[in-house]
Design brief:
The protein is mostly helical and 438 residues long. It has a single domain, classed as Proton glutamate symport protein (Orthogonal Bundle). The longest helix is centred in the N-terminal third of the chain and has 45 residues. It is globular and about 70 Å long. 49% of the residues are buried. The structure holds aspartic acid.
Length: 438
């Protein structure tokens, strides 16, 4: 395990986060008295701060695809023996499933106890639906464009006809698809295992060099983080404002509490039981990763930082980190699964739809499956949530009720998604399945 060195950069990023939040809150307070000032601050956020934040974000996005490819393929080659791929993948998927199921269950228990939807007044409901109805329609439309789950759809998701087109994002929408790249990287790594020693080693060192180069770019981006993070946080705070919090206070606080409970509670128990790390030390070491997840709201954008931290700050074997983290980024979304369950129950409560125990059990399973399909980008889960609402006979426009606070909860659920991925990598690293790899 690497020595614990509280890096000054990690502290500076954290301070940046606080500065952004405090300045944002101050602007809201003063803006309450001088609305023109708040308007000016919002315009400044949109015109100046957001593009600046995007420089940081895009630099991370630049490296995602080559990094997923390089680290995953290198991880598989490093296994050295194809028969070890099965147990490694088996353990990884079992942990993903356990993690997401526990998260959704916690969220659903909270929603059944607090029942925040019952407290929303009819007047607030119609105001929110009116205000965010347009944005809701966009997500419902995107949901409608997604084909119903069938075997063919699953095959298409992993094996599109045009691999390069899918990765480049020309196939479906503007975002590149990560799942086909994951499968291709695993196949390439597996094929490389069959090469003779000399060529296998040169493939491995080529892939490792690619990964290191991408990690180098991540370090450049992280140098921007102490400035980009406050800019992004300030922008979110001034744009969201207080009102919406007050309207949805119990729901927001309930979700935040359960997310914190899952990531720092359940996951700390996993660390304690299944790894050699002390939970406190673990969370301290990956602070910059959590802050990156929080400020970017994107698991994909956070993957490069997560990979670097897993190897450099936690001493997780590159083969394990390279295998678990890219997979986890796309499939293991505990925060998202938890949130999907909570939103469906919340909107059902607001509209007076009662879901039976059996329906809620189905919801748990669908929320987990839905989270696997969610893209690791800001707001990635919204179309899936619209789909879940339709499945349970709840008006999908209801998603408009939570859209105003979605950004804050998106930031938080991304922290849970990413935090749980790194914990899973640590657990898998500690299991026997990968013991012989160095
Ligand atoms: N923003 C989330 C992530 O990237 C996905 C979502 O739940 O919307 O992990």
């Amino acid at each position: 395990m690497a020595e614990s060195t509280p890096t000054p950069l990690a502290n500076r990023i954290l301070v940046g986060l606080l500065v952004g939040a405090v300045l944002g809150a101050a602007t809201l307070l003063i803006g309450g008295m001088f609305p023109a000032l708040l308007e000016a601050a919002r315009a400044f956020a949109v015109k100046v701060l957001d593009p600046f934040g995007q420089v940081f974000l895009r630099m991370l996005f630049f490296v995602v695809m080559p990094l997923v490819f390089g680290s995953l393929a290198a991880g598989v080659v490093q296994l050295g023996d194809l028969s070890r791929l099965g147990p490694l993948a088996g353990a990884t998927f079992a942990l993903f499933f356990a993690n997401m199921s526990i998260a959704v269950a916690l969220g659903m228990v909270m929603m059944n106890i607090l029942r925040p939807g019952d407290a929303i007044e009819a007047e607030t409901k119609s105001r929110l639906v009116q205000e965010y109805g347009g944005a809701a329609a966009k997500h419902i439309e995107r949901q409608a464009q997604q084909p119903d789950m069938s075997l063919q759809v699953i095959v298409d998701m992993f094996m599109p006809r045009n691999l390069v087109g899918a990765i480049a994002g020309t196939d479906r929408g503007a975002l590149g698809e990560v799942l086909p790249l994951i499968l291709f990287a695993i196949l390439l790594g597996a094929a490389a295992i069959g090469l003779d020693d000399t060529r296998r080693k040169s493939v491995q060192s080529g892939l490792e060099t690619l990964t290191e180069l991408m990690t180098g770019i991540v370090h450049f981006a992280l140098r921007l983080a102490p400035y980009a993070v406050p800019a992004m946080i300030y922008s979110v705070v001034v744009k969201i404002g207080w009102d919406i919090f007050v309207a949805l206070g119990v729901f927001v606080l309930g979700c935040l509490a359960v997310m914190v409970l899952h990531v720092f509670g359940t996951m700390s128990v996993w660390l304690k039981l299944f790894t050699r790390y002390s939970p406190l030390d673990f969370w301290r070491r990956i602070r910059p990763v959590l802050v990156t997840a929080f400020s970017t709201s994107s698991s994909n954008a956070t993957l490069p930082t997560a990979l670097a931290a897993a190897r450099e700050d936690l001493g997780i074997r590159p083969s394990t980190a390279g295998f678990v983290l890219p997979l986890g980024t796309t499939m293991n979304m505990a925060g998202t699964a938890l949130y999907e369950g909570c939103v469906v129950l919340f909107v059902a409560q607001v509209f007076g739809v009662d879901l039976t125990f059996a329906q809620q059990a189905t919801l748990l399973l669908l929320a987990v499956l839905g989270a696997v399909a969610v893209a690791g980008v800001p707001g990635g889960s919204l179309p899936i949530i619209a789909g879940l609402l339709i499945t349970f006979g709840i008006p999908p426009e209801g998603i408009g009720i939570i859209l105003g606070v979605d950004r804050l909860l998106d930031m938080s659920r991304t922290v849970v998604n990413v935090g749980a991925d790194i914990v899973t990598a640590a657990v898998v690293d500690n299991l026997d399945v990968d013991q012989k790899t160095v």
